[in-house]
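I hope you will forgive my troubling you with a question about protein structure. You will find the record immediately after this paragraph.
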Amino acid sequence: MLYLMRHGAPAVAGRLLGRTDDPATEAGIAACAARAVGLDVARIEVSDLIRARACAEAIAGPPSLPVVVNPRWRELDFGTWDGLAPAAIDPAALGAFYDDPDAAPPPGGERWSSLHDRVAAALSAMPPVPTLVVTHGGAIRAALADLCGFDRRQIWAFDLPYAALVSLRIWPGPTRTVQIVGLAT
């Protein structure tokens, strides 16, 4: 099994937080820890950003599970938009980004395909044991695109609020098969 969890609510919600390293709130950390109760995992992998790491550490707490920090699970880098509220960004530029984040990435930011490629590399390097990944909304969407073949429009068709958990069953082999078996929001 593979579980993908979005970090808890950040101290500054409602902004494009990519590389901005804002912490999660106490309530956000507690929401992630509560969501993880009962998960049967052998390890936890986590983005290197503090809002995800604090949640993973709370989940791993006694008994201590191995926590692997992996920067490939970082959120999309929003460039000069990083840390801004969507209302502070030119609506036409933001709309172009949401329509095609490869053709219209944020100024100085990362293309969708770059996020997808680094998340796919993180998935490929994972050992075949039940794992919880505590990461960001964009990275979860990139993982679902890689694992399930969803296109960009399909991955934006559902909400991934803070502390959301996507549960996946994976059958390895020459042609990997993946089934979403749960979405807890």
About this structure: The two ends are 18 Å apart (CA to CA). The chain has a mean pLDDT of 95. The chain is about 35% helix and 15% strand. The longest helix spans residues 112-125.
